[in-house]
Amino acid sequence: MSAVDQMDPSSLPARAAPRLPWRSRLAGLVRRFALATLAGLVLAGIVHIVTVLLIPQVSEHDAAAAYATLGTGGKAELLPTGAGQPDLRDADPATVTAVCSYDLSAGPMRVVARTGSLPLGLSLHRRGGGVVYAITERAAIRGTLEFVVMTEAQHDDRLAQDDEGETNRELRVVSDTEQGLIVARVLMERPSDRTEAEALATGVACGLAD
Amino acid sequence: MRVVTLAYVIALGAGLGFASAQYAIAGRPLFGMAQIGPWTSWPRSGSKDIDPYMRAYLVRGVHLPLGAGEGLELIADRDASGQLLDGRCRYLITGTTPTTRGWTIGVTDLDGRAFRLPLERSGFSDAEIVRDERGDLRIAAAAGPEAGNWLPLPTNGRFQLRLRLYDTPISSHANEMRPETLPRIGRADCR
C-alpha cells in the first residue's frame, strides 16, 4: 500500500490520480535496477582482480608442475620431447634446455655449472610464475658459475652463522617460494653444436648445499 | 523481489568478472608491453616484479620465459608499414641487432610454435647468417626459394617473427629502445 492510495482522491486532480502509483513504481524499479547493476559491476571488478591474482596459486599446468620430477637426482635433465610430454610454449628451437626441480624444505640448494664455448644462461623460476634470478656464463669465475638457492629464513640462518668480519664468497639467491625450477639454457649457434650444448646443459649440478 | 535482485547482482558480478579475467589473460596482456617499431616485447615477464596479468597468462601453460638478465624475446606480427605478416608475401629483414652474446630469429605460428615445412629451417642464429660487406643483416623471408639468407615461410596464412637476444644489456631498458636498433621488416611484394 503506497501513501498515494490512502489519500483522499478529491484532493488530487481527477485524471492524474490513477497514474501516479504506476509511475512511481516504475521509477522505483528503474532505480533498483540501476543500483543492482552498479553493485554487480563492483562485484565483477572484485571477482576479476581476485581471479587474476588467484590463478598462479591454484594453477597445476605451469612449468614448475609439469617438470616437478626432473633433475631431482642432483643433475639437470633435458626437457622430454615427443607425444604425451608437456608442450613447452614459446621455446626457441635453437636452444637446449635442461631443468632441475628444487624443493627447499630439505635445505638450501647449491647450483654449479661449468661453462663452455656456447652461450649459457641459468634462471630460477619460482612456482606460480616469475623469474627470481637469472645469470649468464659471462659472470663465471674461472669457468664455473655457482650459487646457492635458499628461502628467506634459510638466508637469515646463514647470515647468523657467518663469522664476524669474514667476507663470504658464496653467491646467495633468495627464492620466495620453496618450490621451483632451475633452468639451464644453452644456445646452439649451429645445429652441429647440439651434442656440446646438451653436455653443457646436463652438466649443471644441483644438490643440497650442506 | 529481493531474491531476484540479489541473483541478478551475483550473476552479473560473477559472469562479468570471470569472463573479463578469462579474456584478459587468454593472450599476452597489454600491460607491461613495450612496442618498438613492429616488435613487441614484455621485458618484465622475466623478472621478479612481473605484473599479475602476465603471471596468470604464463602459469596457464608450460612457459619458461627468458630471465631479465638472460635475454629478451621480441615478437613481430606486423611489418614496418603496419600490415599483418602473411605467408603469401615476400619480406626483407634488414638492419642491425643490438649488442648481444648471440641472437636467433625464427618464424612461428601465432601460438609460438614452429611450422612443419618441408625444409628443416625455422630460423637463423647470428653465426649462421651470411652478411654483406658492411656487416649488415639481410634475410629474405618467403615461401619460395630466395638467394642469400632464405627464411622459408608457410605458403599462406599469418605468422610471427621472433627475435631472441641472448645476454644483452638492453633487456633492462627495453622500453627506451629505438626502432632503428632492431631489424626492419619490409614487405617486398605479395602473390
The CATH architecture of the largest domain in chain A is Sandwich
List unreliable stretches of 5+ residues of chain B. none
Count, helices of chain A: 5
CATH C-level class of the largest domain in chain A is Mainly Beta
Counted beta strands of chain A: 10
Shape of chain A: elongated
Tally of individual domains of chain A: 2
Percentage beta strand of chain B: 25-35%
Measured as a percent range, the helix fraction of chain A is 25-40%
By CATH, the topology of the largest domain in chain A is Immunoglobulin-like
H/E series of chain B: HEEHEEEEEEEEE
Coarse morphology of chain B = elongated
How does the helix and strand content of chain B classify structurally? alpha+beta
- Largest interface, chains and sizes: A-B, 60 and 58 residues
**Rg over CA atoms of chain A:** 31 Å
Proportion of helical residues of chain B: 10-25%
Class of secondary structure makeup of chain A: alpha+beta
The end-to-end distance of chain A, rounded to whole angstroms, is 81 Å
> Main sheet of chain B: which strands, in order across?
1-2-4-10-6-7
